[in-house]
Amino acid sequence: MILGIGSDLCDVRRIEEVLNRHGKRFTQRIFTPNEIKKAEARYGKTRIGTYAKRWAAKEACAKALGTGFTEDVFYQDIEVINLPSGKPSLKLTNGALKQLNKLGKEGYEPNILLTMTDELPYAFAQVMIELLPSKE
């Protein structure tokens, strides 16, 4: 059962301008330490694209949750991670996790699907939240 779908298209040049203007103040407000570490390990346009895709993923997730960035859902509550296979996914904490749990249903567990891509000058992410039968 699909609970929510969200997508976001981001202009990479806009993220680059904000990074140039606000630097760490921006990254530390929006991204988790792990996301910053991953982006900063890259160079040039790849670094900017890494930030832009994660920005788009956070926006898409907030839409899929049905809240946007309200009801105690903040950017730092949504973290882009990679599963052991390398597949991108999302780790939700705090207000975002609470909102996800509100969408749940007895006997089911939420599953988050994420896809991201960038083709300069754009970055795109789509998030789908589904309920799957519990494995218990």
UniProtKB/TrEMBL annotation:
Catalytic activities: apo-[ACP] + CoA = holo-[ACP] + adenosine 3',5'-bisphosphate + H(+)
Domain 4'-phosphopantetheinyl transferase: 4-97
Cofactor: Mg(2+)
Keywords carried by this UniProt record: Cytoplasm, Fatty acid biosynthesis, Fatty acid metabolism, Lipid biosynthesis, Lipid metabolism, Magnesium, Metal-binding, Transferase
Subcellular location, record wording: Cytoplasm
Molecular function GO labels: holo-[acyl-carrier-protein] synthase activity; magnesium ion binding
Superkingdom, natural source: Bacteria
Positions that bind Mg(2+): 8, 59
GO cellular component: a single term: cytoplasm
EC number per UniProt: 2.7.8.7
Main location: cytoplasm
GO biological process, one term: fatty acid biosynthetic process
Class in the EC hierarchy, top level: transferase
InterPro entries (alphabetical): 4-PPantetheinyl_Trfase_dom (IPR008278), 4-PPantetheinyl_Trfase_dom_sf (IPR037143), ACPS (IPR002582), Ppantetheine-prot_Trfase_dom (IPR004568)
Family as reported in the entry's similarity comment: Belongs to the P-Pant transferase superfamily. AcpS family.
Role summary: Transfers the 4'-phosphopantetheine moiety from coenzyme A to a Ser of acyl-carrier-protein.
Protein's name according to its UniProt entry: Holo-[acyl-carrier-protein] synthase
